[in-house]
Amino acid sequence: MDGMDHGHGMGTGMASSPSSSMMDGTMMHLTFFWGTTEELLFSKWPGTNTGMYYVSLLFVFALAVLVEWLSYCRLIRAGASDVVCGVTQTLLHAIRVGLAYLVMLAVMSFNAGVFLVAVAGHAVGFLLFGSRVFKKKSDVDDKGSDLPPMCC
């Protein structure tokens, strides 16, 4: 029994707030907060430089726009073989889901700025690629739907 931590995991001697948690000696927020020194996606990125924080916000925004573009783009042309079409659709789907998970992981930092730019990126991406605002009449089918076809 000697040497065991009887504090039920609280052997650090540090007070823990319900809105934060300790992991590997670093503080991890569990509620939304405002700040420019939070790590996103990678260890020590963006670091303590405020300018790099804004670069990371731009990166998350661009990822969210890219996810929306991949959701609504039509990269496969008619006449392609079913096998090529299926493999291409599967690859594009995997890339889109992977990028969407990166955006989700960035949002899980609970940084309010990251959350806002992720939502803004998805909104701008939908406006540009998913809504009717920038669609040509030929992109809308005879039933009035502007959603991309589910088949090749």
From TrEMBL:
<keyword id="KW-0812">Transmembrane</keyword>
<comment type="similarity">
    <text>Belongs to the copper transporter (Ctr) (TC 1.A.56) family. SLC31A subfamily.</text>
</comment>
<protein>
    <recommendedName>
        <fullName>Copper transport protein</fullName>
    </recommendedName>
</protein>
<keyword id="KW-0813">Transport</keyword>
<feature type="region of interest" description="Disordered">
    <location>
        <begin position="1"/>
        <end position="21"/>
    </location>
</feature>
<feature type="transmembrane region" description="Helical">
    <location>
        <begin position="110"/>
        <end position="129"/>
    </location>
</feature>
<keyword id="KW-1133">Transmembrane helix</keyword>
<dbReference type="GO" id="GO:0005375">
    <property type="term" value="F:copper ion transmembrane transporter activity"/>
</dbReference>
<keyword id="KW-0406">Ion transport</keyword>
<feature type="transmembrane region" description="Helical">
    <location>
        <begin position="51"/>
        <end position="71"/>
    </location>
</feature>
<keyword id="KW-0186">Copper</keyword>
<dbReference type="InterPro" id="IPR007274">
    <property type="entry name" value="Cop_transporter"/>
</dbReference>
<keyword id="KW-0187">Copper transport</keyword>
<dbReference type="GO" id="GO:0005886">
    <property type="term" value="C:plasma membrane"/>
</dbReference>
<keyword id="KW-0472">Membrane</keyword>
<dbReference type="Pfam" id="PF04145">
    <property type="entry name" value="Ctr"/>
</dbReference>
<feature type="transmembrane region" description="Helical">
    <location>
        <begin position="83"/>
        <end position="104"/>
    </location>
</feature>
